[in-house]
Design brief:
Layout (H helix, E strand, L loop, with lengths): L2 H17 L2 H4 L10 H10 L15 H6 L11 H12 L14 H8 L50 H12 L21 H12 L8
Helix pairs in contact: 1-3, 6-8, 7-8
Length: 214
């Protein structure tokens, strides 16, 4: 789902809550993603445009669970979070040739590119990783996202052993296998980036010559 779609959906949900009357007031969060009126509003408010398809509005189990804010932290939902993380971990595909790292220079290009998946993009266009939107990548950056932790010195602060390689790969491939309601896109699982691109991003994070580790 694109950022503009998310914003439009949030605004529409807010309007729906304002007009829902006393019934909405009984719920802490008001009508949610499983509310029939809300779903009808989504279907009538959006249409396919280029490669941006309304099918993206259909949530899988993980997305539906995390659409209720309390589920991310409520102790009562802990077992469900664990089950979701296990299910997402099962989707992870490891390097097909056993090689973990690609070219950090290519990885930097991917990390600094936010192109892909919007109605203005073309199907044959290579998607970026959009990493810069949430993370600091190098020490030289003066403008960077802060939703996620800084990645500067990522490789310096960790051993480049198998455990680190697997943990890093999992985060990029399907972050919800580690944190059920992570804000990080499931890059590999959702087909946003491919195996080669993941290897390049791995090199960006772990190669000693990468600007991340300077």
């Amino acid at each position: 789902m694109t950022k503009s779609t998310l914003i439009a959906a949030a605004l529409a949900a807010g309007l729906l809550a304002l007009h829902a009357g006393p019934a909405a007031a009984q719920s802490k969060w008001g009508p949610g993603a499983d509310d029939a009126t809300f779903q009808a509003m989504l279907k009538s408010s959006f249409k396919d445009n280029g490669i941006a398809k309304t099918a993206r509005l259909t949530q899988d189990e993980t997305q539906a669970f995390c659409s209720t804010p309390d589920n991310a932290t409520d102790p009562a939902a802990a077992k469900k979070r664990e089950a979701i993380e296990a299910a997402n971990l099962a989707t992870v595909k490891w390097p097909s040739d056993g090689k973990w790292l690609g070219d950090w220079k290519e990885g930097e290009k991917i990390a600094q590119s936010g192109r892909g998946l919007t109605w203005t993009d073309k199907a044959e266009q290579v998607n970026g990783g959009n990493c810069y939107n949430c993370h600091q990548i190098t020490a030289e950056e003066i403008s960077h996202g802060t939703i996620g932790p800084s990645l500067h010195n990522y490789g310096k602060l960790r051993d480049r052993d198998e455990a680190t390689l697997k943990a890093t790969w999992v985060r990029i491939y399907n972050s919800k296998s580690v944190n059920a309601c992570s804000n990080m896109p499931r890059g590999g699982h959702m087909g946003i980036i491919d195996e080669t691109q993941i290897k390049h991003l791995m090199a960006l994070l772990l190669d000693p010559q990468s600007p991340v580790n300077k």
